[in-house]
Design goal:
By secondary structure, the chain is an alpha/beta fold. It has nine helices and eight strands. It has a single domain, classed as P-loop containing nucleotide triphosphate hydrolases (Rossmann fold). 49% of the residues lie in helices and 16% in strands. The strands form two sheets. It has a five-stranded parallel sheet, sandwiched between helices. A three-stranded antiparallel sheet has the order 6-5-7. Bound molecules: adenosine-5'-diphosphate (2 copies) and zinc ion (ZN).
Length: 223
């Protein structure tokens, strides 16, 4: 049985961090639209050049191209087991696009863990975030430092600070989140798919809460 999980939360809430931990526990791949866009940027594809203009400003890439990119990702064989969606959907239109895509393969979203974090904490997390160039693992200077400064614990890749984590762009991204993504919380709650998680707990406590929400949803689905 395939399992599709949508991780919801503001920029810096901990979606990527939790996705990386849950991938091992659940055996389904992380699908991060931010990572996919950054790969396109690096490879200098047409999509990458288009996405860059939005990402640099902290705005959302248009729904149509974002949905199409996810559709292509789902066609890869590892998504036969499902996916942990990190950073998608970010608008109601994308959520509707996802429903249509999943219905076409006889699937639906199992659960939507919503990692709740206050705006001030989001900003503090983004400003201290270091990301691995190679495997996109996330670290934080204070809350989750790497064993050796500047080096990824998982793959020994180089750590860098994303340009869109600068204070101005990070603020814009948080505003965009409130305008365009936060309405998804009530949208998924209305469908009975939301699982609220206190995202201001330590990383391990958030992981435990997430895992129990996902496992509960899987066993509901199997009944
Ligand atoms: P974070 O993890 O900090 O929230 P992401 O890596 O998910 O940031 O996203 C970085 C940028 O990539 C966003 O600011 C946006 O420009 C673009 N992006 C990522 N996912 C989407 C999406 N689902 N729809 C539109 N734009 C997106
Ligand atoms: P998102 O993918 O939602 O944008 P990340 O997973 O990249 O968020 O996390 C943002 C930053 O906050 C990273 O520096 C990460 O190490 C840190 N972080 C993640 N979860 C927690 C937590 N529960 N407590 C403290 N810091 C955290
Ligand atoms: Zn790494």
């Amino acid at each position: 049985m395939a399992v599709f999980v949508v991780l919801l939360g503001g920029p810096g809430a901990g979606k990527g961090t939790q996705a990386k931990l849950l991938v091992d526990e659940l055996g389904i791949p992380q699908v991060s639209t931010g990572d996919l866009f950054r790969q396109h940027l690096q490879a200098d594809t047409d999509l990458g050049r288009l996405a860059r203009t939005y990402m640099e400003r902290g705005e959302l890439v248009p729904d149509r191209v974002t949905i199409e990119m996810v559709r292509e990702r789902f066609a890869q064989s590892d998504c036969a087991s499902g996916a942990l969606l990190d950073g998608f959907p970010r608008t109601i239109a994308q959520a509707e696009g996802l429903e249509i895509m999943l219905a076409a393969i006889g699937q639906r979203v199992a659960v939507v863990p919503f990692i709740r974090v206050s705006p001030a904490v989001l900003l503090e997390r983004l400003s201290g975030r270091w990301t691995c160039r190679q495997c996109s693992s996330m670290y934080h200077v204070l809350h989750n430092p790497p064993l050796a400064p500047g080096v990824c614990d998982r793959c020994a890749g180089e750590l860098y600070q994303r340009t869109d984590d600068s204070p101005e762009t990070a603020k814009r991204r948080i505003d965009v989140y409130w305008e365009q993504t936060a309405p998804l919380v009530e949208w998924y709650r209305g469908k009975g798919q939301l699982a609220e998680i206190d995202g201001e707990q330590p990383i391990e406590a958030v992981s435990r809460a997430m895992l129990s929400a996902v496992c509960a949803a899987i066993s509901r689905g199997e009944r």
